[in-house]
Write a structure and sequence with these properties.
Helix content: under 10%
Distance between the termini: 42 Å
Strand order of the largest sheet: 1-5-4-3-2
CATH architecture of the domain at 158-230: Beta Barrel
Structural class: mainly beta
CATH class of the domain at 158-230: Mainly Beta
Order of helices and strands: EEEEEEEEEEEEEEEEEEE
Radius of gyration: 19 Å
Strand content: over 45%
Shape: globular
Number of helices: 0
CATH topology of the domain at 158-230: Thrombin, subunit H
Length: 230
């Protein structure tokens, strides 16, 4: 590690984590009011160290804040937005900050129009990204191209306003205000579903466990129930 890397004790907002499988390096990324910081795990000191600080006026609130690990790049890209792609085959346009570049940091052309409603980005591996956008789920590569050859249904539309998705053991649970359903990854088939207007549902994610939180619709501040999705 270079001598210019120092300890960082910043107060950060969301901290997405990523691992570069080619180098084995672990990263955290933080969004400040007017910029982005990247931290890397430094094994000899047993802590994360600041390696990049990029000043850029971020949108508020941030529609998306995730890292995308691109093969061949040392540092992850920082995704700060996602919108519809310019063509059917390019279904998604990622608005990213390239922390590997010294000149062209922000990769957005400025012509993309953000989609209304919840958006979410989950990188599955070096070539596959799961994107919730425009009330549909899309499986694309890092260029936003649909992975038609890899999945029977690279685009899955929803008939409800899905708020959040997760991935557990090749299944995709999706939650909306009054329900949750589960589909196999890359399939339009619904294998489990629960709808109940008496309860509100919220999906709580972790790397290995998905938890569903429910609250009575008539008592939004009342006690909640937590269920582990198996």
């Amino acid at each position: 590690m270079g001598s210019n890397r120092r300890g960082c004790s910043l107060t950060l907002r969301p901290l997405p984590a990523a691992r570069n499988t080619q180098t084995g390096c672990h990263y955290l990324c933080g969004a400040l009011e007017a910029g982005v910081v990247l931290l890397q795990w430094y094994e000899p000191m047993q802590k994360f160290m600041l390696v990049k600080h990029f000043d850029f006026p971020l949108p508020s609130p941030l529609p998306v804040f995730e890292m995308l690990v691109s093969p061949g790049e040392e540092y992850p890209l920082v995704c700060i937005g996602v919108s519809k792609g310019p063509a059917p085959v390019q279904a998604v346009h990622f608005q990213t900050i390239n922390l590997n570049s010294l000149t062209s940091w922000f990769t957005d052309s400025g012509t993309a129009v953000s989609c209304p409603g919840p958006t979410q980005v989950i990188q599955l591996d070096g070539e596959t990204v799961l994107v919730l956008i425009d009330r549909s789920l899309k499986l694309v590569n890092l260029q936003g191209l649909l992975l038609r050859r890899h999945f029977p249904a690279p685009t899955v539309p929803f008939d409800m306003a899905v708020e959040s998705v997760a991935l557990v053991q090749n299944c995709v649970p999706a939650s909306w205000r009054h329900g949750v359903q589960v589909r196999p990854l890359g399939s339009a088939q619904v294998v489990e579903e629960l709808r109940d207007t008496h309860w509100t549902f919220r999906l709580l994610r972790s790397p290995s466990t998905v938890i569903i939180e429910t609250r009575p619709t008539e008592e939004p501040s009342g006690a909640s129930n937590l269920y582990v999705l198996e």
